[in-house]
Structures are given as structure tokens and as C-alpha cells.
Specification:
TIM Barrel, seven-stranded parallel sheet, 51% helix, globular
């Protein structure tokens, strides 16, 4: 869907994957970094997309893979795994690495890492990435640093700038002065909820600070944002979208399942796919929805209906690639195909509708053409 939308709207593609999604253990998609890059390149070629394609790591850092938190990894264990993951990203051909060293589960509840510790760990991972890059003889990498999370401690403009200043000093101390991130993530007021909204005033402040240090602000948690047109107005250079796509696909599946039930109860099909029953069951069993709730809210039966649906939808991404779900979607497709409904096309459309809405708000139409003209002017 993303490649089709990029072809239609003529904008560059950036695929951003977390270590939960794509990793050396296969993540929840079953894909390693090498598999992921191979798949993207294959699909780009198959769909005849000729624009720029960027493959990126999202939130590469200790304890930013759910497995490491659930299994209580030590700092050494979490860093060792992260380094192996970063190495796999570089060897696979990733273009951009988001280094996020803001989490430490060994701290007492409520405590945060100091900016100095965040910088030290960030530089440690960048230094390691550069060692691997040079050893493998691959082209220069682009970097993204920082976090949007409150636990990261980079919540105010003052701390945001302090992080940038200390990062530059530490990189120079390590002999890495030629390395400088292109993106920095900051707290721009967004959070993954249905009533999400960009804080335009705070964003402008962070953009101006970043600009003074030759950095571009990248927005995370762009999903469900009510004012996406403010992103280009504030000067934000890039934005990540993910959970909203899964939510849209979940709603589309639910709508298609309702059509299937009408056909079943009117005797037009013999057997239901029971896609939603199986999907909801696997989502609950995965437990991944828990991280979006406070500890006192985790009783599933007491969660309000609208919040429960949001949790189902956004957490669907963790299990949609499960073979049981794929089989049931195929069954749903077989049942509805006889009556002129193409399930895969409807699911694709549900995702493309979201992508088109954001690409219009972000003024992305004809970006590839504009870039080509700008490059010609430089000749």
C-alpha cells in the first residue's frame, strides 16, 4: 500500500522498523533485517517504483525491544543484543539508524537517566555502528537521536538543547566529530491516542533550536493526529506513522467480517472465517496492549469499549502476520470473492486512505519530481 501510494503521489519512501518488528530473532513479523531489506527491494522493483527508498531502524537501544523488558535483561545483556541488532541492520543495508538510549529498567520507579548518561550511551552505540560500517566497507550512515517519550527525560526545550550540546562534545571527544545526526526526536506533544494533537508552539521552539545545530526535528507518534497540516507549518522535517495503519486495517477487517456474517446467516456461504474472533483472541493473548495502560487499568474487562477497540486495532499489528490470521483472512477472501468483494484490495485501500491523508497534509505530492528539478539546477 505504501509503495502504491508513493507511486501515485510521487514522494520518497521511508520504511522505519523497530526491533520488535524486525530483528535478528525475526521479531513479530518473522523477518530479520536481511529479510526485510530484501523484501522491500523486491516489492519496489515489482511495483516499478523509481523514487528514493530509505530503510531505517526505529528506537535502537537497550530495553526498547519488549522481550528485553519482559525477560528483565541486565544493562550488559540489553546493550549486547542492541549492538548485534545494529550490526545486522548495517550488514543488511539500512540507511538510517535511530539510536535511542533513553530507557533503563534498572532504575527505581519514577527515576530517569541523566542527560549525561543518555549521551554517553548514545555515543557508545554510534561509535560501535561506525566501527561495523568501516569494517564492512559500507557507505556512510545517517543517524537519528533522542526520543519523544517522557521517560527519556528530554522533555523541555532547555533539556533538548542540553542534549544536543553534550552530544556534540562527546562525539568530538571520541574522535567522531565528522558524525552528526540528521534527525532529532523531541516531545512535540503527540501521543498514540485517538484525540492526538501536535503542539505547534512547542514544535516551533524545538525546530528553531535544532536548526541552530544543523539538525532536523522528526515527529514520532504522528498516528491519529488531528492537525497534521501543522507539521510543515512548524518546520518538522519528518514524521513516523504506524499504529494508525494497523487500526485502519483492523476496522476494515471488522467491516468485511460483518458482510461475511450477513451472507452466512442468509445461507449464501457455508462456513464463517471467524477472523475477528481469532484476531481478538490472539491480540489479548499477546499482552502487547498492556504497555499503553497504567498498571491500575490493566483489567481487560473494566476497560471502556472505545478504549478496548483502540487497543485491539493498534495491537493488531503484533499478530496480523501470524499464520492462523493469514489463513482466516484467506478464508474471508474466498467467501467474499464470490460476491464481488476483493478482501486484499479493501484492506489495501484502508491503509492507502490514511497515507494519502497524511501525504496531502505534509505537501508530499510531486516531491520526487521537485527533487529531480532541484538536482538539475545544481548541475
Amino acid at each position: 500500500a505504501s509503495i502504491q501510494t508513493a507511486n501515485f503521489m510521487d514522494f520518497p519512501l521511508m520504511f522505519v522498523a523497530t526491533l520488535n518488528q524486525i530483528d535478528i530473532d525475526g521479531g513479530y513479523t518473522g523477518l530479520t533485517q536481511k529479510d526485510f531489506v530484501k523484501l522491500v527491494r523486491k516489492e519496489v522493483e515489482r511495483q516499478e517504483y523509481n523514487g528514493p527508498v530509505i530503510i531505517a531502524l526505529d528506537h535502537g537501544g537497550p530495553w526498547l525491544k519488549d522481550k528485553h523488558v519482559i525477560e528483565g535483561y541486565s544493562f550488559e545483556e540489553a546493550m549486547d543484543w542492541t549492538m548485534k541488532s545494529i550490526e545486522a541492520c548495517i550488514k543488511a543495508g539500512y540507511d538510517l539508524l535511530h539510536i535511542d538510549a533513553t530507557v533503563d529498567i534498572t532504575l527505581e520507579r519514577g527515576k530517569k537517566l541523566s542527560i549525561g548518561d543518555v549521551v554517553e550511551r548514545t555515543v557508545m552505540l554510534i561509535e560501535y555502528a561506525e566501527e561495523i560500517r568501516k569494517k564492512e566497507g559500507v557507505q556512510k550512515l545517517s543517524y537519528e537521536v533522542g526520543t519523544e517519550e517522557v521517560h527519556g527525560g528530554i522533555t523541555s526545550p532547555e533539556l533538548f538543547e542540553k542534549f544536543i550540546i553534550e552530544l556534540r562534545i562527546k562525539l568530538k571527544e571520541r574522535g567522531l566529530e565528522e558524525i552528526w545526526p540528521c534527525f532529532i526526536v523531541g516531545d512535540i506533544g503527540t501521543y498514540p491516542m485517538l484525540e492526538n494533537k501536535l503542539d505547534a508552539e512547542k514544535s516551533k521552539i524545538l525546530v528553531n533550536i535544532a536548526k541552530a545545530y544543523n539538525l532536523h526535528v522528526k515527529g514520532h507518534y504522528t498516528d491519529f493526529v488531528l492537525n497534521p497540516e501543522e507539521y510543515p507549518n512548524t518546520g518538522i522535517a519528518a514524521a513516523n506513522i504506524g499504529p494508525e495503519l494497523a487500526y485502519s486495517e483492523y476496522l476494515a477487517l471488522n467491516s468485511l467480517a460483518n458482510v461475511e456474517k450477513k451472507l452466512f446467516y442468509s445461507g449464501k456461504i457455508l462456513e464463517l472465517s471467524n477472523i475477528m474472533e481469532e484476531l481478538d483472541k490472539l491480540i489479548i493473548e499477546s499482552g502487547r496492549w498492556r504497555k499503553w495502560l497504567r498498571e491500575e487499568e490493566i483489567n481487560w474487562e473494566k476497560i471502556p469499549h472505545n478504549m478496548r477497540q483502540w487497543l485491539f486495532g493498534t495491537s493488531a499489528r503484533y499478530v496480523l502476520s501470524d499464520q492462523q490470521i493469514i489463513n482466516r483472512i484467506n478464508k474471508l477472501g474466498d467467501n467474499l470473492e464470490k460476491y464481488g468483494i476483493n478482501v486484499n484490495e479493501r484492506l489495501n485501500k484502508s491503509i492507502k486512505d490514511i497515507l494519502i491523508r497524511y501525504s496531502k497534509a505534509f505537501n508530499l505530492k510531486n516531491t520526487c519530481f521537485k527533487m529531480a528539478i532541484a538536482l538539475i539546477d545544481l548541475l
